[in-house]
Amino acid sequence: MDKVKNSPVDTGGFSLRRTALLAGLLALCWVSFFVLALWAQEPTFEQGLSPGQPLMPAEIDGDERQRVVGLGDNLTGTILIPGPSELGAVADQSFFAPESWAEELTRNQGWGPNHPRMLADVNGDGKQDIVGFGDDGVWIATSTGTRFEPAFVLADFGTQSGWQVEKHVRTTGDINGDKLDDIVGFGDAGVYQALSTGTGFSTPTFVIKNFGYDQGWRVDKHVRLLADVNGDGLKDIVAFGDDGVWLSLATSSGSFSDPAFVIADFGFNQGWTVLKHIRTTADVNGDGKQDIVGFGDDGVWIAFSTGSGFDTPQFVLSDFGFIAGIWRTDRHPRLLVDINNDGMQDIVAFGDAGVWVSRSTGSGFEPAQFVLADFGYNKGWRVGKHPRYVADLNGDGYQDIVGFGDELVYRSLGGPTGFAGLRGMLRDLIPGIGFPWNSPAGALPIYFPRFVGDVNGDGMQDLIAFDNADIKVVRSSNLPPPPPPKAPSNPRITGNTSTSLSIAWNDNSNDERRFYINYGKSGTMTKVTSVGANVVTAVLSSLDSDTEYCFTVQAENLWGFSPQTYRRCGRTKVEQMTPPTQPEDEVTGYSSINVFNCISEQRPLYIWTRDVTQSYWVQRGIAPSLWSGGSCPGSAAPFVVPLQDGHSFWFVAVDPQLIGCGGTNDPQYSACQRSTYTLPLKGDADGPALPNVIG
Q1: Prior bond of 445 cis (ω within 30°)
Q2: pLDDT tens digits, residue range 225-269?
Q3: Phi, psi of 161 (to 5 degrees)
Q4: How far apart are CA 611 and CA 647, in angstroms?
Q5: Which residues contact 305 (CB under 8 A, 6 or more apart)?
């Protein structure tokens, strides 16, 4: 599917002589000032979704440029460290810390799969509000710019009034031209509307006896959208039925014209299905009217708006299709957004290998270009789990990509040369921090949806997330990103047993939330554990004996991860064998103790025995270190301690350099004992040797 072509993203530097460099910098400053002045407008995001249907392009107050486009809930396993500002971006961008804006319309209050929630500007103040369809009817959470104010406003369009997500589409858009988003619902009998009053909605009005469940329209077969088809600023109905496309134009009274059948194509009977094909609207030629764009089997089709209908569909691009390129609706989001500010909406597509774009020519689309090797299926991004949007995050007039990954919220800034590289921005609202964001992919978009929209009216698109108990808002800014925590240093091993390693490190930051420890057997560091802020020790447990393990440590905070420490390795001790217990009536013993000195400190051990029969201690000699490059005992010969036949012995290996021993070679001082057998071992000239590997 992903045929790599030249990327328009500039990732290199300049190679100019000094005079040319100076001239180039002056020109760049002038162009940046001009672009910022030209695009300093404050459009809004209008959203309408139905189950199984892609997000409609967002019209922007008549200028046809979009601030947000997305497919709802859709990472990469790579953890990125924020770097310097991206080349090509007009302005920088960062996020503020998440804020709790409301405690309604969430899972804790009973909202779930039967309750669509969406963003809409219901009072025309340029700030995105929330419209939710609950059991009892419609709720709105009006944005004040610093919080949401929830209110129950309409006892209709809810489950108690018979509305069901598997049968009925409910969406929002300005259908009467007053700049307030209204409700349009496709019910059993047909289409209902409820006009916004600025503080709520009017009593629902039945406006069209068509497009409803009783007329055969089904959510899993027929896409129904709101789009301004004739450029009058009112949202019209575009419906994809069995036989093709139907159109009903909005009127200034809030009603709609009688439905007209306008294209015998794009319908279920022509082979178009919700599961295989995307059908949406966008202004492809910059005339202010929304056209139809369909991603079919063989590629991309366009039907241009005539103002009262649509021209005959044209096949314009052999790519991005179910067969042409092997694109799938459950894997590969495809959006329409103006990425080069020419007033015509382009294709931004998230494929297997990453991001592809196809710019509008006004009559079709250019051949697809591969622009960013991330945000794609092969990097771990999944529809339902990792939402990806195209939105102007920093108010510079260029569309950016933002995605909720597994470990971070990532973004790629747009600019005159295209999209810059991927950058991790925020460690929140993502599966890596736990519940509820680690819920199954099928549950996330219906219980815990995440959106992008301008909730404070500053022209920069923010993140909105429905957490388990509250609605979180992450405000966007054009400030440089805050740095991640400083990296820890001096990783070290402070102790070991046969099943654990005790480790420590130095804390060099004052703003970490936790430390992550990546560890595993040498060459396979696949395990991760963590400790809290300011903790500088840990114990890696449940390890295999006599095995080398390695680890690194990195600090984490809200803004990302520090670099990792260098890798430090150590070995667990050999598991010490316990001599088998013999029945009291047996006299079988051991001819000798074979001592293997495998301590990693490579020190000699002083070997003592106590003849229990005669009650005295004897130093039997010194067992040299057999440690050799991490391998022990290998084929090295042991230090042999013979046991006299018929006598019973205690055994002690003394390490005078143990902490607390004080350099004393004393077998009776417990702080000096490295290995002991205090249950008497019986000497038997005919018995086996007892191996004792000391690690």
Answers
A1: no
A2: 999 999 999 999 999 999 999 999 999 999 999 999 999 999 999
A3: -95, 10
A4: 7
A5: 229, 230, 287, 289, 290, 291, 292, 311
